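User: Modeling request: complex.
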Amino acid sequence: MSTIACGLLLIAIFIYVFYPDRHPEAQIQKTRLDFLRERKEVLYDNLRDLNFEYRAGKYPEEDYAAQRAALENEAAEIMAEMDLLERQTLHSA
Amino acid sequence: MPAFGSFALLLALALSGYNLLAGAIALRQLATGSRGRVSPERLAETARRAGIGSFFAVTSAAFALVWAAFANDFSVSYILHHSNRALPGAYKFAALWSGQEGSLLLWAWLLAAYGFVLRARHKVDVKLTAYASTILSGIQIFFLLLLNFAAPPFALVAGTIPQDGFGLNPLLQYPEMVIHPPMLYLGYVGFAVPFAFALGALMMRYPGDKWIHITRRWTMVAWLFLTCGIFLGAHWAYSVLGWGGYWGWDPVENASLMPWLTGTAFLHSVMMQEKRGMMKNWNVWLIFSTFALSILGTLLTRSGLVSSVHAFAQSSIGTWFWAFLVIVLVVCLFTFILQRDHLKSEHKLESLVSRESSFLFNNLVLLAACFTVLWGTLFPVISEYVQGNKVTVSAPFYNRVAVPIGLFLLFLTGIGPILAWRSTSFKSIRKNFILPAVAALVTAIVLVACGVYPLKDQGTFYSLMAWSLGALVVTAVGSEFLRGAGVISRHTGQNIFASMIQLTRRNTRRYGGYIIHFGVVVIFIGLAGSAFDRSVEQELNFKQSMTMGPYRLVCQDYSQDTNPNYDTEYAILDVYRGDKKITQLAPEKRFYQASQTTSTIVANHSTLAWDLYVIYAGKDPDSGQPIIKVFLNPLVAWIWIGVVIVIIGTFVALTPNMTAAYAASRSRLPVRETPEMAVSKGGD
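Assistant: Request completed. Predicted assembly structure:
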């Protein structure tokens, strides 16, 4: 009984592991552009949070303005780099 | 069945070995662009499937052991030593993790189960998951090597097979013991997943911080299980060990606390990496340390390295664990040195008064607590190695350091949400800090007026601090909810309560976190009550009475009972408050026949104000009179209530956010344009 159970387990797992898969998932390398897109989303989130907290009365006007300017500058830098990379990608294509 | 179990474990080892080898070759080929006879994608896919296959193999082995327990197969040495015929079914199932070999099998099975989920969800990021899967298989190989060669759970009894087993340790025959160890292990093992992702991301120089986003739920789930495991253990100690407390700084308790502390630090500091691209080195080492401490925890529990009331195994597998720990740390260090330029921070700390600095302090405090606990736990081992005699560190050492640290942490919990990212102006501090500070001050004044004098003794001072800081945190958290709900209420026309729910659903991570902080305050309120614990012990014969606080206990009877598993001796006590009988308690002392050992079953009358905790301590050997010990422990129920709130908060934080569009569709006002909806979203 044990021998049959061992045999069945072995065969079932062997078939599962080595059964040919015609379309294995490709392992795509993330690019700098992907990273910048993620950072942009994070910065947008940070901006939304800042706006929300300002509207909730958490920050004085001058703090809000300074924080917002810093986040917008950072977002602008990221978008400029994204623009450059996208143009380079277009040229190389 | 034993043969099937042994075979399944060997098969699982082979599959994990293949997962590691084929996975590593495929990743190497993909990194260098080289190709073998089989495409690297195909090879990586077979490695992933081998990992999934190992889950089925380890599950088969675990099933075989449980089957052997229920079938009373005493030819298996493990079953002979941890079960007996009269043992109730639930404890036969729990026998799976009550001994060394079984608990290692549980570790391996849980790791395989986590690995199964990770590999099944590989499409979230195929390459990163392939790295994580390969690393997990390396960990799995260690546990399977132990199970196959050092601590085999299916080892057979030599010679004549006894008719009955030696039974389960009586301390483990308690309902919570059926779920406490799996919870703890789910926590320990769960940290292997974020560890594998972090190490994988570092090895492949993963661009960006999305790996943190992918592993956030894994980390929270592991943290939740560990939290539940720790508090279930505390409740078990309170109910079974019969010394009147729930936390004794026992090495095994400490072992579970250490990864919890670093895991909590990690959960906080990753927010800095996600939001600001900071603390990358720190975060990587935090999760490496958390995993290493989980392994150390298992080592302490299972090797008998330190003396503990609940180190249920003594063995030589410690060497294996030390070797594994060294390998893990060397791999982590080597990878870190090789790839450290990849972990450059994108920003620097701009101000000491900012959200970032509060997270930093929070981390430093948690790490200081962890180091204290680690030092105290390992001190007996170190002192024995250096001096030749074991010097044990007791509770006062831990309390002297941990209590102030805990209070500072509570203070940070209160001020953290008030501070802004980057820097906070004095005007902003004044605006947000006054109300919580006033709440703390008023609480302190009221408590002093009620007789809690801070200069009476150190315990009273700390309790006063804990309750006042609790008021600070609750006010800070409450004002965060009210302010946010106010914005939504103005925006949607909903009432403040509905707005609060919507606010939470829009940013579950942030507001779930606040609920957790509220739960932590409730736990601290309960812990602070321990400064006022009282106890009395006396001989109590039939119809005699004793008094504790507002309660009077009258002995109604002493009785004995027996069942196939144990003999029991118990007292029946009527409890009066004034002239009114409020309950009847029956503290017990049990004698387990199979293991020839005794255990205490505490009787507890719990209210929000205090626990009336009663122990039947047996009979006085000289007078033959029964001895009853009574404790009056204030506010203990608050600890368990706080834990439930923490669990609820964690579930909220694990729930995906409601989208802004869906939220707008539920409001009474017409749907607004996207920027407006985005602005009304709660912050993080």
